[in-house]
Design goal:
Mean pLDDT: 72
Number of strands: 0
Shape: flat
Family: Belongs to the methyl-accepting chemotaxis (MCP) protein family.
Oligomer: single chain
GO molecular function: transmembrane signaling receptor activity
Low-confidence stretches: 46-55, 607-617
InterPro entries: Chemotax_Me-accpt_rcpt, HAMP_dom, MCP_chemotaxis, MCPsignal_dom
Organism: Shinella granuli
CATH topology of the largest domain: Helix Hairpins
Main location: membrane
Amino acid sequence: MRMTLNATLIVMGSIVVLASVGSLGVQATAIDQFNVGGPAYQEIIMKKDFVADVAPPPINLVQPYALALESMSFHRTSERNLDRLDRLHAEYERKKQIWTNSTLPGEIRETLAKDVFPSTDKFWDIVETQLKPAIKDRDKPAIAIASQNLRDGFAEHQAVMESAMKLANTAVLADQSHALTTASTLQLIGSIAALTSIAILVLGLVMLRTRAIGPILRMSETMDHLTAGRTDVAIPYLNRRDEVGTMAAAVEVFKEAAASKARLEAEATQLRIEADKERLAIQAESEAAAELRLKQATSGLAGGLNRLASGDLTVELADAFSPEFEGLRADFNQAALQLGTLLADISSTAGVIAGATKEINTDSADLSSRTERQAASLEETAAALEEITGNVTSASGRADDARKIADIANRSAERSEDVVNRAIEAMSRIEQSSGQMSKIVGAIDEIAFQTNLLALNAGVEAARAGDAGKGFAVVAQEVRELAQRTAKEARDIKQLIASSNAEVENGVHFVQEAGQSLNEIGTHIREIHQLIQAIATSAREQAVGLAEVNAAVNMMDQFTQQNAVMVVQTNGASASLAEEADRLAQLLGRFRYPSYAAQSQQDRTAQVPPLRVVSSR
């Protein structure tokens, strides 16, 4: 059902009024929600306050001061804390540049420039010039001085920050009050403007209904009468000088045209009858001539198609057709020419493909032979690796047995050392010499530890090189050097014992020598135990590595055998492709090609180099 202009005007006006009222309500709601002091604003302020409470601000020195105190109290965390202080200092410098160039009120920027930034720079200067060097040098007096200076600088900074915070809070409250006043004023102005717009819209709709829609409805009734054939109806609003008057003048023209139409229709009916008779006669003559030309064209085209069907691609329609069918003859000749050229190209390409497939077949056979030989070599390699793995595993077991025996000897030596140590403890006059011997024994232990590390490195080197002998040779050299250092420490012990001989009796001398000998035996037994343990560990790692290499070689053997099968399949496929290419060449040989197409085919065949499939050797 179509709506009239009157109804459309009323509906559209109502929609616009409702939309304006709705827009005004949405605008008022949005302003109420998002203005300064509204729910959304309060939510944002709350989150920013939370972030300010959780994340330490770069200008406030609470976190740097805490890190400085921790660095001065706990040296093990000083390096990490100094790095964090460097990052905080860099962040402060970045924020300082931002706030210096900001649009903050002049009083706040002046406070930052004169009070906040100087006190903060003073604090960081103490950190960089006093605290860091003192902590790195572990200079306790300098650390104490830096601590006192930092405490004074931090107290000065906190006092300045309290003053700056008061200024900032006062400025925020003033800006918030001004924003609330401005938002209320703008909201009132927007509401007045919206209500004024709605009133103007309603007044315009009423005037449009009176001045335009009513006259248009009456003109519509008049035009309905004219459509029904009543040319005696009077046209209203002819004396108006607006658009309605122009429309009335146009309807008057339609009225006069309708009257003229009635007169002309009778004359047109008679003329149409006479024209139909003449047209039928001319149409009969034209159809006879067109049938003759069509017959001539179809006859020539049928002959050409028969020659194409028999494989003669040299066919050409030389006899001219009538002008309307001359394009069809030219299209047929062009199609026959392109078909001959295309089939000649296909024939040439088929020959090239046939040659290439034969080359692929030959090279595939060669590749299959080489792949079989490679598979046999990999199988032999896998067997050799498996034998080597067994030998290395056996050596690892023997090394474990030797390690167990060394454990027993080590425990026996330790028990003997305990007996001698109890005898030595009973002698009160050798306490000072015993303390010095403990230092030397500590040095010997450190040398034994280094010997263990060198033995482990030798085991890693032997595992990587694949030749255990080279790695163990390097370890043996390092062990000999450590043995020399051990002998030197033993000589020092002997010198200390000799200095104590003047203060003890002959029995003490014998006990000292027995203790020295047992200590040397225990040290050597421990060194032997560590070396044997390193050898056992290296042998186990070699056994694991050889097992992995053996598995990898077996996998390569399987892949090589699969490749051999795929090469055989490829060889069969290339042979089948060569047969199909020969068959295609035979089929294309049934056609007769134009002389220029045949010559072009020979030239392309001569120019195309033979395809050679290169396989890896």
